[in-house]
Amino acid sequence: MASNITWHAGSVSLTERQDLLKQKGLTIWFTGLSASGKSTLATALEQTLLHAGIISYRLDGDNIRFGLNKNLGFGPDDRTENIRRISEVAKLFADSTVIAITAFISPYRQDRDTARQLHQEAGIPFVEVFADAPLEVVEQRDPKGLYKKAKAGEIKEFTGISAPYEAPEKPEIHIRTDQVSVEEGVKAVIKYLVDQGYIAADKIKQ
Amino acid sequence: MASNITWHAGSVSLTERQDLLKQKGLTIWFTGLSASGKSTLATALEQTLLHAGIISYRLDGDNIRFGLNKNLGFGPDDRTENIRRISEVAKLFADSTVIAITAFISPYRQDRDTARQLHQEAGIPFVEVFADAPLEVVEQRDPKGLYKKAKAGEIKEFTGISAPYEAPEKPEIHIRTDQVSVEEGVKAVIKYLVDQGYIAADKIKQ
């Protein structure tokens, strides 16, 4: 029997895990209208962290809607269940010491607050980032022609057109994506993470 | 604009992520009867990996049934949905380069095969570990008195008593938990991971 196998009964605590891996997890929750720049910012942030050797993982429509949440539609109940599952998975990632990054419209304040509460109860930081651009700007961008279709009534319950978007009242970070570059947006998030002590200043250039 | 922020459009590929973080993810899927020793083995394996500085994360009843899957019951459809969601989440963890460890009875061969296929399609290794102890042994152990209750008809559809357990036909690893110690079981898994090149031999003592 090898003496080098170390274990004790029960789960590894959050702080024990953080000490062993020398890193802390948290969830960075992007919210904003379609075409507000959430995914672009989230992608750039994830890459920046990975290039600094910091494990991070992005949950977005591509890997969630066609996987975990493929059995959900777009009605109100399914939208809430969509965000609930994403919140739970982000929390698991953050608990594992990964920096989880979510990029979903997540239009309802209550759903985002539930996500925040879930993290707070587990002692895991939750950072809400508002990717904010005025409706006229995102309608102008409209890379997939979705706003056009929504206005023509071809898409029902489209956030900002025929369904509400409840803007965050006190997000940890507010990025006006029509006023700053992607690089500046990412820098603002990184600065926040360093200032809060979530990532070590010497791990990443600011 | 900082030149040190590096990013490109689109997602980071699996191999790029593995190169940046110098680690590879995979899923280690424990299956076996209640009280077969799945959770004990999974816990000891997770701790051994963490103590070697290798990020791993265990999905089990405690963090899944009361979180992500708290809206599922124990009927056939809900059992399948339970395992489906766990498969999807394990795959996400493995995709992020974490070693995901799942510890659920997962009695149906088809559900486990679906989990395997999901991983294979994503190019992520899937290691099925059969925590195997004869029914008479687990009935004897019965730490929570569940077998007793099941036999008395107080619990319906209990795996091994009133619901089937379909043993793996070709698991990557087969551990007779009534014949080997926890340490020996963990060593067998670690040896497999090293032999397959999933973790570096110099990272962990065998």
Fold topology:
2 copies of one chain form a homodimer.
Chain A: H1 14-21, E1 26-31, H2 38-51, E2 56-60, H3 61-68, H4 76-95, E3 99-103, H5 109-121, E4 126-132, H6 135-141, H7 146-151, E5 173-176, H8 182-195
Parallel strand pairs in A: 1-3, 1-4, 2-3, 4-5
What does the model show?
Chains A, B: Catalyzes the synthesis of activated sulfate. Chains A, B: Its EC number is 2.7.1.25. Chains A, B: It catalyses: adenosine 5'-phosphosulfate + ATP = 3'-phosphoadenylyl sulfate + ADP + H(+). Chains A, B: GO terms for molecular function: adenylylsulfate kinase activity; ATP binding. Chains A, B: Belongs to the APS kinase family. The structure is a homodimer of 206-residue chains. The first copy, chain A, has 206 residues and is an alpha/beta fold. Chain A has a single domain, classed as P-loop containing nucleotide triphosphate hydrolases (Rossmann fold, 3-Layer(aba) Sandwich). Chain A is built from eight helices and five strands; from the N terminus they run αβαβααβαβααβα. The first copy, chain A, has a five-stranded parallel beta sheet, sandwiched between helices. The radius of gyration of chain A is 18 Å and the shape is globular. At the A-B interface, helix 1, helix 2, strand 2, helix 3 and helix 4 of A face helix 1, helix 2, strand 2, helix 3 and helix 4 of B.
